[in-house]
Write a structure and sequence with these properties.
Elements lengths: L1 E5 L2 E8 L4 E5 L10 H6 L5 E6 L15 H15 L4 E6 L1 H12 L4 E7 L5 H4 L2 H16 L22 H9 L3 H13 L13 E6 L7 H10 L3 E6 L6 H4 L1 H14 L2
Parallel strand pairs: 3-4, 3-5, 5-6, 6-7, 7-8
Antiparallel strand pairs: 1-2, 2-4
């Protein structure tokens, strides 16, 4: 594990392996441990980096006025700390929204983009009524008494969570900080990055669980239509957290894409 201080916020990350740098950015309500299969499976070919974003895992607390740009700047600091040169940068769900903001602010740090079951912000990818329903659900979640707080979002998997990852999912849920979740999901509700997509000038992999209910396939198709140099790969039988539900297919797609754009 390593850490980097960004404006007084300590940001932790794990790295494994050697080779081209592949940075993995987790979603909301989890931390860098969600990438355990990829840290094990890809380290023989890449320097695999999994951060704990501000307010998650081993990183410091997120300030209440943190904005999407601040998350992106912290991610940029991690990539610069690893160095040298641009990296393959992958983000899942909320993590993909952070990665897009990184590209907006620091395209020099990005060799390729891997956008996994993600959004151009909820506002930029979902119908207004769906955004409103999700905001209401978040408000109910955060209003629950501490002993009833459950940060697990509905519809993460196509079926039941893979049994071998249930202990990991439980451990990450136990460690979620409600203040972080409040900031993340408020930002998702107000973010619309559609203006950025046509301006993306690096190879982009859109990697989607074919049965994703959180970010349905129409979101993936909208990304594919908007990003000039993009490739859509669907993972059969997988839902929103495709890296845990189908890690072997996920690994093959990442290896093939990054290898083609080394």
């Amino acid at each position: 594990m390593a850490t980097v201080d960004v404006g007084g916020v300590e940001v932790a990350y794990t790295r494994a392996g050697r080779g081209p740098v592949l940075v993995l950015v987790h979603g909301a309500g989890v931390d860098g441990r969600m990438w355990q299969p990829q840290l094990a499976d890809l380290a023989n070919e890449f320097t695999v980096v999994a951060w704990d974003e501000p307010g998650a895992g081993r990183s410091g607390d997120v300030p209440p006025d943190f904005r999407l740009a601040d998350f992106a700047d912290c991610l940029a600091a991690v990539i610069e700390d690893i160095g040298p040169g641009p990296a393959h940068v992958a983000g899942l769900s909320w993590g993909g929204t952070v990665v897009l903001e990184l590209y907006r602010r620091r395209p020099d740090l990005v060799r390729t983009l891997l956008l996994v079951d993600t959004y151009a912000g909820w506002k930029g990818s979902l119908p207004p009524e769906e955004v409103a329903a999700r905001v209401a659900g978040v408000e109910r979640m955060l209003a629950a008494p501490p002993e009833e707080f459950d940060p697990t979002m509905p519809g993460l998997f196509a079926g039941e969570p893979p049994p071998r990852y249930v202990p990991l999912l439980d451990a990450m849920a136990h460690d979620v900080r409600p203040d972080t979740l409040r900031v993340q999901l408020a930002l998702m509700a107000e973010t619309d990055q559609r203006d950025l997509l046509p301006r993306i000038g690096v190879p982009t992999l859109l990697l989607w669980g074919e049965q994703d209910a959180r970010s349905p396939l129409y979101v993936a198709r909208a990304f594919q239509d908007a990003i000039p140099e993009s490739e859509l790969v669907l993972i059969p039988g997988a839902g929103h957290v495709s890296n845990l539900e189908a890690p072997e297919a996920f690994r093959r797609a990442v290896r093939a894409f990054c290898g083609a754009h080394a």
